[in-house]
Amino acid sequence: MQMIEHFVQFYENDVYLISQVAGFLRAGLQAGDAAVVIATKPHRDDLENRLRADTSRMAAQQLHADRYVALDAADTLSQFLVDGQLDGERFTGLFGPILKRTTGSGDGRARVFGEMVGLLCTEGKHEAAIRVKDELSICLPWR
To answer: Contact, 120 vs 129, CB < 8 A?
Structure first.
């Protein structure tokens, strides 16, 4: 059984957020982990720019290899959220293949940064955000 670690961090500004997430992803890429980013376009762009600017050559190359995937948070939500509910089958169907490809058969480690719950909260969809957060732990295909 693979160990799943999960944490939530609050931040005051985007500069701090990008700095912290870039460090988290950079360390993973340098260790050979996969990196999956599910975020808004400005944050995806800022993260990639930061990673390109301050990573080792090996990790920077991984941004364009199969070990790095960046997805739009709103688009990703629309693929598995149905009437405010997380559809576990759709979630697994979306993330299972991504993690299998990026981790090399699904057995490797992946570092994931996601803004889906935050996006729902920003849109005032607090109940949906809570459901997604709670149900994500049930539906994780890489457990």
So the answer is: yes
